Amino acid sequence: PRHRWWTTAWNSVTVAAFLVQFVRWMSGEDLPTVAVQYAAFLQVNKLWNRRNQADHDQIAMLSLLHLIGSAILFTDLTYALVFVLYAVTTPWMLVLGQIRREVEAKYMDRGDGRSVRDMERVLNSKRIVSGRFLAAMAGLSIPIYLVTAVLFVTFPRIGIGLLAGSDPAQRNLTGFSDQVVIGDLAPMFDDPTVVLRAEFPGGRPADEEIATLYWRGSSYDRFDGKEWHRTLGHGQTVRSAGGRYLVSGEAAAGALPGTDDLLGIDVFLQPLNPKVVFLPQETALVSVPSPEPLRVMAHKLRWGPGDEVRYSDPGGAGIHYRLWMNPGFAGMREVEPYMGGAAGTAGEGEPHGPWLAMPQTSTAFDDLASGFASSEPDPRRRALAMEKWLRTSFGYTTTASEEVPAGTGPVDAFLFDWRKGNCEYFSTSLVLLLRATGIPARNVTGFVGGEWNDVGDYLAVREADAHSWVEAWFESAGWLVMDPTPPAEGPDAGGGTVFAVLGDLVDSMRLSWHKHIIAYDLGQQADIARRGYQGFASLRAVFKGMEATAAGDEDKGAQRRAMVLI
Question: Which pLDDT does position 254 carry in this prediction?
Answer without folding.
Answer: 54
